[in-house]
Here is the input.
Amino acid sequence: MKKEEYLKYVEETTKRADVKKTFLFSFLFGGLICALGEALRLFFLNFSLNEKDASACVSCFLIILTAILTGLGLFHKIAKIAGAGTFVPITGFANSVISSALEFKTEGFILGVGAKIFVIAGPVIVYGTAASIICGLVFYFITLLGGTI
Here is the structure.
């Protein structure tokens, strides 16, 4: 099969995504996750927690909920429908860590889970940390020279 024939075959057999539907579901599910976070924040504030502690409880709750849903195989099914809407930072990050842990659990806790748990999330942590340090240094030197941002 020649390259042109192969490309034509791929074009004919590849399922096209409905972009409008994908954007709509991503928007709706991302909004639902954020609305759940806000509802939880208000719920925790009713228990006489201050804003900082209530926000920490919301983060912990969303991480635990994502871990449970990932472990049960439900988060993947939701993500198929919701698309990028499930990548609201804390749920997407928790899913990537738990998915890696589940994938490598057969290799043991040390060489499997311990060594591979941050395979997906590790680069995010490294580049996020490096970017924040660089931005902090740029901000520091700009303010040191009398500039404002």
